[in-house]
Write a structure and sequence with these properties.
Layout lengths: L11 H15 L5 H16 L3 E8 L2 E8 L6 E3 L3 H9 L3 E3 L17 E8 L5 E9 L7 H18 L2
Helix pairs in contact: 1-2, 1-4
């Protein structure tokens, strides 16, 4: 069954507010990868981000999972790049200008700013990260961190079934 995503509002806060119930509906899909793929697509196209994807922890590295956007890095080491840093430190990382982030892994020269959020498993360990890139500098704020934290809660519900 195809879903249609409708975004209302002019501020990012209003847009997240209208998107969140739709993401919760998409999360009802019983297959983890199908649900995650649709949520990622809804984030990318609903909010107009450059790239959105999940990296899954496997054998002490992050492996590319469902994503929407340009071809991406397939493997990221623990503590490497923005994603590996968020995984290692178990915290949200917002980078206003990826070119100033020491150790940034440039999957696309079009990416200018980034936010990465850790996603936790039942054990409390990071099991994946949600990575969102923008083609604009300083595109992410505390508003994104707050609302994407709610998206992470939805994703945690999917991966911890």
């Amino acid at each position: 069954m195809a879903e249609t995503i409708t975004i209302n509002g002019t501020t990012r806060h209003e847009q997240y507010e209208s998107l969140l119930p739709q993401l919760k509906s998409l999360a009802k899909e019983p297959d983890q990868y199908a649900a995650l793929g649709n949520i990622i697509s809804a984030l990318k196209y609903g909010l107009g981000f450059f790239w959105v994807g999940a990296y899954i922890v496997k054998n002490n590295e992050l492996i590319l999972g469902p994503f929407q956007g340009t071809v991406a890095c397939t493997r990221i080491g623990f503590g490497k790049g923005v994603c590996g840093h968020a995984w290692k430190d178990k915290k949200v990382v917002i980078v206003d200008n990826v070119n100033t982030f020491e150790g940034h892994i440039a999957c696309s020269s079009e990416s200018k700013s980034e936010i990465v959020l850790p996603i936790y498993g039942k054990s409390g360990d990071v099991v994946m990260v949600l990575d969102i890139d923008s083609d604009r500098l300083a595109d992410f704020s505390s508003v994104d961190e707050q609302w994407l934290g709610k998206v992470v809660n939805i994703i945690e519900g999917i991966v911890n079934k």
